[in-house]
Amino acid sequence: MDEFSFIDSIKQQTYNQSSLIKGIGDDAAVFRTSMDIVTAVDTFVENVHFSKETMESFHIGYRALAANISDLAAMGALPAFYLVSIVIPKEWNQEELVQIFNGMKSLAEQYKIDLIGGDTVSGKELSISITVIGYTMRERSRFRSAARQDDIVFVTGTLGDSQAGFHILTNPDDYFEPTYFINRHRMPSPRVEFASGLSNLSRIALNDISDGIASEANEIAEASHVTITLVDELLPTSAAYNQFSLDLQYKWKLYGGEDFELMGTVPREDWEEVKRIADLTNTIVSKIGYVTTSDRGGHVFLKQNNKNDIILKKKGYTHLK
């Protein structure tokens, strides 16, 4: 199959978004809107972000798009469109490539997102670059710089599941609920409905957990010039998480990343509304700490029972380290 036949095989025949004027078929797509536009892009490289050993082709596409949609959720945006540029090495066959796009399509259909363009080239290693475009109501985009003194810190879902799933895939053994953890690694659930439901709140800071909650909390603390304290015993984990060693549990829930949950801060008077929206969207949400301002502004601390607070550094995987 040549490049143009491949593109023709993956393009949508019908579109969901009424704002789309022209999708795939011209040099660029065209859409029209009166709302604020939010966009993000991520690149995924074979043997850096994924491998055939732990991911089927379908999961590679699904997870790559999920990571991008999670970025939009962290901005309070509803996803609408995505574009995919892919570098294809000769080792990957046509069926594998089709399954990558089927994985994206499966998730895109859940959110009524349209594929409106991209690029396809040959190269030495598989690389996928996805650009997502979404909308928010005017002046309702969410920023990391919105945290303030006395805010409640919260998180959706449970922490460390993705890294537990990766561990199960790379360390064969008998585990409790292996399918749950593996699916959390391969097919994360962006918290779009929950984030969108918070649109009536006048102020909220959000960040998606791609690099671990310690890193994401530091990003909010630095952007908002505040100190954030997380309470260790309040950090939520799944019921079967305690089957792993204490060292791994601690490492994964704080620094593991790739859970693609949302953490945020909200004024105390709005906490009940956050919980109400969580109930309406079937989202687990947990209070995990609080915000202060001090001479140590821009730092994150972890409070543990009967121990001194420790500094949580902004660490984890960085590509240019």
Molecular structure report:
Helix content is 32%, strand content 24%. It is α+β, with helices and mostly antiparallel strands. The protein folds into 2 domains: 3-136, 2-Layer Sandwich (60s Ribosomal Protein L30, Chain: A), CATH 3.30.1330.10; 144-311, Phosphoribosyl-aminoimidazole Synthetase, Chain A, domain 2, CATH 3.90.650. The chain has a 7-stranded mixed sheet with strand order 8-10-7-11-9-12-13. Strands 3-6-4-5 form a 4-stranded mixed sheet. It has a two-stranded antiparallel sheet with strand order 1-2. Strand 12 and strand 13 form a beta hairpin. Helix 2 runs parallel beside helix 3 (94-111) and helix 4 (161-170) packs across helix 5 (178-186). The longest helix has 18 residues, at 57-74. It starts with a helix and ends in a 10-residue tail after the last strand. The model has no long low-confidence stretch (mean pLDDT 93).
List keywords for this structure.
single chain; 321 residues; 60s Ribosomal Protein L30, Chain: A; Phosphoribosyl-aminoimidazole Synthetase, Chain A, domain 2; 2 domains; 32% helix
Topology of helices and strands:
Blueprint: H1 3-10, E1 20-22, E2 30-31, E3 36-45, H2 57-74, E4 78-88, H3 94-111, E5 114-122, E6 127-136, E7 152-156, H4 161-170, H5 178-186, H6 192-197, E8 205-208, H7 213-224, E9 227-231, H8 246-256, E10 262-266, H9 271-280, E11 285-292, E12 300-303, E13 310-311
Parallel strand pairs: 4-5, 9-12
Antiparallel strand pairs: 1-2, 3-6, 4-6, 7-10, 7-11, 8-10, 9-11, 12-13
Short description:
The protein has 321 residues and is an alpha+beta fold.
